Predict the structure.
Amino acid sequence: MKKYNITPFRPGYNTVAGPSLGDDELQMEFGFLALAGKTVYENAQPFERAFLLICGDVTFCWEGRRERVSRGLWRDCGPYCLHVPAGVRVRIEGHADHSELSVHQTENENALPCRMLTPADAKDVRRGADTLEGSTERIVRDIISQDTCPDSNLVLGEVILKPGRWGGYPNHYHPQPEVFFFKYYPENGFGIANVGDQAYLTTNNTAVKITENCDHPCVCAPGYWQYSIWCIRNLPGNPYIKPTFNERFKALNAGW
């Protein structure tokens, strides 16, 4: 269990969590890429990798292909994500004054296909609107899953919470390690993320590590929208399919 205070980010690539920083139990690296103007980033690491555009205007280049994509506010615009296997050289060219991407890397010897995922691949799914008086209403976007890429060692998605709503609720857990990364709109927003019995204040550009089968619900303060990227590392022979719900809250019969 750990919270990362990572504001502000330096221009370029910033490692946030993972074995290179002593978080061996995560079994994956999570980083943040900030591109200012016409800057370029290249990555040919021997890992499975996912490059998720959070905001801005970039061109993804890989295996002779080029695709320019742009994204406005995450609340209103779906994700673009380049997903590649180990060793494929990726070049990301920035075009906007400021572009932001999350970078996810893990060991995987499987021959994955290169995939450029778009909002059409990660459609908005509204959950929780019809239970608990709408207090857990949220938008979920599944980007990488066992359904869409069974040979991947990553599970990646986004969740959008309206002001004052809860996410990850009813309380649930799973054996696979996970990282949550939070942003808020307006940017001075905040929320709370519970990991087991610990409560962490989350502000714009902070992350929380989740391990040890800990419950991990979160809540957004009224007046603000919360965005979270969640990335789970599948375990050998035990990929993440669905969570286990805490029996204490079973009587709520709330929709997931």
Summary: The mean pLDDT is 93. Residues 18 and 98 are 25 Å apart (CA to CA). The chain has one domain: 2-252. The two ends are 24 Å apart (CA to CA).
